[in-house]
Amino acid sequence: MTATRLVDQDRPALIFRVDGVEVPAKQGDTLLTAMLTAGLGHVRTSEFGDGGRAGFCWMGACQDCWVVVAGQGVRRACTTLVEPGIEVIRR
């Protein structure tokens, strides 16, 4: 499934990496927004074995969208802004 960007399509484009693959984003996107808009389908795999997770609260209150950012450790994808060249590893 791919999310569709309805507004702010004219913001500058950025490229970052998820699990070694280049992913497009727009300046000001959170990692969660960029990953779902790019069609990745999930931001992490549940540690309880029930499949991919794509965020729950979208405001930084839960742990459903945790990813590893190279050089920064575990971060919430819903509150972490995309930066050019950032490296994300899905957990």
Structural overview:
This protein is mainly β and 91 residues long. It is globular and about 40 Å long. The protein has a single domain (13-90), classed as Ubiquitin-like (UB roll) (Roll), CATH 3.10.20.740. A 5-stranded mixed β-sheet has the order 2-1-7-5-6, with helices on one face. A two-stranded antiparallel ribbon has the order 3-4. It is built from 1 helix and 7 strands. The longest helix has 7 residues, at 31-37. It holds the Pfam family Fer2_4. This is (2Fe-2S)-binding protein.
Low-confidence parts: none
- Percent of sequence in beta strands: 25-35%
Count of structural domains = 1
| CATH topology (level 3) name | Ubiquitin-like (UB roll)
Major sheet:
5 strands, mixed
Count, helices: 1
User: What is the average per-residue confidence, as pLDDT, rounded to a whole number?
Assistant: 84
What would the principal axes of the Cα set say about the shape? globular
Query: Could you estimate the helical fraction of the residues in percent?
Result: under 10%
Number of strands: 7
Q: How would you describe the oligomerization state of the chains in this entry?
A: single chain
Determine the N-to-C terminus distance: 20 Å
CATH architecture: Roll
| The CATH top-level class label | Alpha Beta
Strand order of the largest sheet: 2-1-7-5-6
Cα-based radius of gyration, to the nearest Å: 12 Å
